[in-house]
Input
Amino acid sequence: MKFYIATRLENHLQHNTVRDFLIVAGHSITYDWTSHGPVWKAGTKVIREVACAELNGVVEADVVVVLLPGGRGTHAELGMAIALGKPVLLCGGPEMYGAVPETCAFYHHPLVLHLPLWVMDELEFFVERWPQTAPAPTESIQPIIGREELPRMPKA
Output
């Protein structure tokens, strides 16, 4: 299985823990933004290249793992995954994805599966049974843009 991990920069240690766990389990990451960290000081050309690389990471992934709390980019990546019809594994506590003021409507989309953060046994359960545990696409949650219709962005 190919995966992409979306979270905010400050969660890079959690990102790396989940990444390492999934790689040891035999899966591969499509793009690891922690290898370069924040790029805002590098200028708009580099920011644009990273945006394309992250978009391609979501496109190439079989599943997108979202670690809460997330930032602006996290939510853009969540939206891309849903628009592409990809299953999303949302990791966080109910204080983030329950019926609370901090929630986001897209946390409750049918393609999104909630998983408590740092319950590695549950993560392993999910990975071992992939794709049986993935939400099944229905007419109401078909991808908005088919993979073949999505314009490819230049790789960074």
Q: What stands out?
A: The chain is about 35% helix and 15% strand.
